[in-house]
Design a protein that fits this description.
A hairpin with a 2-residue loop joins β5 (107-112) and β6. The chain has 11 helices and 13 strands. The protein has 2 domains: 4-44 and 161-287, HAD superfamily/HAD-like (Rossmann fold); 49-157, Calcium-transporting ATPase, cytoplasmic domain N (3-Layer(aba) Sandwich), CATH 3.40.1110.10. It has 288 residues and is of the alpha/beta class. The structure holds adenosine-5'-diphosphate and magnesium ion. Magnesium ion (MG) binds at residues 38, 40-41, 232, 234-236. It comes from Paenibacillus mangrovi. Belongs to the cation transport ATPase (P-type) (TC 3.A.3) family. Type IB subfamily. It is found in: Cell membrane. This is Cd(2+)-exporting ATPase.
Length: 288
């Protein structure tokens, strides 16, 4: 049977916008050693703004490049895709798109107006042997090719969430190790890591690499110590499932993430992780 005190803990958590799907997860939160974060949508707002559009010589105009990118990203739910469609800002005609294919951790491959379009990161360009230019500005870069020819890039910038630095600071004071795993570039990952004071940053990871990083952390701790993974679920449901406690951002997160998670943070605030641990500690002291 489940001790009654657990219901009190789960109830208290739900009042703070933290949905805990079982008393075993509440109990596990007492023994957290690592708090591992996804970046986009978890520590950052996932609301990117286009800050630069660069076309390669004798190619398209900036407006044409943005239009192609918006069409290429038409079917994607990734926050990057959304920001490009918002920057384009015009009504779109779906009949111009054929054969949409999203390549997890890379970008998209699709036909627009009968042309083969790739839109994604340097990994995608390297995979397709397309030579790309170095972006002039810091930020997440989406490179675009048309029929195998490099056409230019779009730079977009995200912002860290208001409470992210405080959340990391509190967790570190509680003795937790804070780690960020991201599919984004080293430059972007390290900049966010410095801003937030994270203990470790691992960048340019594919979804399966994120699972491998969790496994590496597992080998560095005692069996009693637990790993929490916090994500928004775009590409990271395997990691949510693999961690001892998978936490999803409920507002921004995908339905798949909310389904796969053990704990859902309804307010999307990273500071709620420490709150959940505090509730777990209080619950344990009442129950035992
Ligand atoms: P994160 O770990 O930051 O949540 P993801 O695993 O979702 O990132 O994506 C990793 C990287 O893959 C992104 O930073 C981006 O470079 C690229 N990418 C993923 N999806 C898309 C897309 N729809 N369009 C362009 N690039 C994408
Ligand atoms: Mg993600």
């Amino acid at each position: 049977s489940i001790p009654l005190g657990f219901f009190g803990g789960i109830g208290a958590a739900s009042k703070s916008g933290i949905l805990i799907k079982g008393s075993n997860y509440l109990e596990a939160l007492n023994d957290v050693k690592y708090v591992v974060f996804d970046k986009t949508g978890t520590l950052t707002k996932g609301a990117f703004k286009v800050t630069d559009i660069h076309t390669s010589h004798d190619g398209l105009t900036k407006d044409q490049l943005l239009e192609l990118a918006a069409y290429a990203e038409f079917h994607s739910t990734h926050p990057i895709a959304e920001s490009i469609r918002i920057a384009f800002g015009k009504a779109m005609d779906e009949s111009r798109i054929e054969g949409y294919n999203e390549i997890s951790g890379h970008g998209v491959h699709v036909k627009v107006d009968g042309k083969e379009i790739l839109a994604g990161n340097t990994k995608l360009m390297n995979k397709e042997s397309i030579t790309y230019e170095q972006p002039a500005q810091a930020g997440t870069t989406v490179h675009i090719s048309v029929n195998g020819q490099y056409a230019g890039y779009i730079t977009i910038a995200d912002e860290v969430k208001e409470d992210a630095a405080e959340a990391i600071h509190t967790l570190k004071q509680m003795g937790k190790k804070t780690v960020m795993l991201t599919g984004d570039s080293k430059a972007v990952g390290e900049a966010v890591g410095r801003t937030l004071g994270l203990d470790e940053v691992h960048a340019e990871l594919l979804p399966q690499n994120k699972v491998e990083e969790i496994e590496k952390l597992e080998s560095k701790k005692s069996p009693k110590e637990k790993i929490v993974f916090v994500g928004d679920g775009i590409n990271d449901t395997p990691v949510l499932a693999r961690a001892d406690v998978g936490m999803a951002m409920g507002g921004l997160g995908s339905d798949a993430a909310i389904e796969a998670a053990d704990v859902v943070i309804m307010t999307d605030e990273p500071s709620k992780i420490a709150s959940a641990i505090h509730i777990a500690q209080r619950t344990r002291s009442i129950v035992w």
